């Protein structure tokens, strides 16, 4: 591929409405360095502010020198550069997974502080193929095998992957043409990591035509299938589901007639909306819940309760999960709710907290049965407390002119379904 074609491919990922500012995560490897140079040219042409950050995991003695190398390149390009150190890893668990999560956290924190519109990552078609094979080994379904998103939201930051249709070899040829030297991380050749073994296996499979671009095409086909299934689920939800007091109720008889995949998607969508979770529960855990509901009236999963009541299947926050959260009345509670005091409130708000209503609070709400939702829904609802004294229960019929506003309302539940 020519340099101009590669540049155009990156530009097309942002046009016709380019952002005002872009952050770039650059490690010093070929993928991220190529992204930096490509975005530098694009940003100059479109008058976009560009900033760069390098996460120093502190796990290799060479890391500091590599961050310095990136800083020197940024100085030549007249692009501001920041090093983000990772400190505090307890050396437990999966190192690569922990490092990945910390990279997102540090980069998102940096991006928000800089006021950036988005942060660009150097993921390539090779990365997508490797991810596909790894998920295949975990027996992933359509969602897991579908192409990773070119843009997504995470950690209150927007992210972009402009290189998903580009091969690593193309990017290295591009850098070589510009006389740019990149860093080769030795961990990329360490067979103790699954991704490295997958990369080597793909090198063998490519002789059979199963290369990165072929797998990327398959992943894209599965993405189209996933989007169609999600659309069908959403249209179904609009017909048989209702959102009330932060819970979802589904017509059980209609639910029973749905294909199993639509059932699964609808419940996962409801769970993610109720508890504001970024990911769906594992398929095995959800199968256990469906099996339990065949003989039991309720089951719990992912901090939520699924309960059969009357002709409805209710999905709502579990009290035990909500009980672990407490917040100031000025802050977001349980990642779900904000409370608004009465306009004429004169007492000190600092004395008040938001906690789950619970059975003690519900006892002060004699009209709760008239609301028409299961008791468990109200037990996990937000209440305003002054130590042990209930001040208001906005959703349980004892509002006292306080309001509870969901962070993600009904419009979000019925909006276009997006998989991150």
From TrEMBL:
UniProt keyword Transcription, yes or no: no
Keywords: ATP-binding, Ligase, Nucleotide-binding, tRNA processing
tRNA(Ile)-lysidine/2-thiocytidine synthase N-terminal domain boundaries: 22-200
EC main group: ligase
SUPFAM superfamilies for the chain: Adenine nucleotide alpha hydrolases-like
The enzyme's E.C. designation: 6.3.4.19
MF terms in GO: ATP binding; tRNA(Ile)-lysidine synthase activity
Gene Ontology process terms (BP): tRNA processing
Catalytically driven reaction(s): cytidine(34) in tRNA(Ile2) + L-lysine + ATP = lysidine(34) in tRNA(Ile2) + AMP + diphosphate + H(+)
PANTHER family, per the entry: TRNA(ILE)-LYSIDINE SYNTHASE-RELATED (PTHR43033)
Name of the protein: tRNA(Ile)-lysidine synthetase
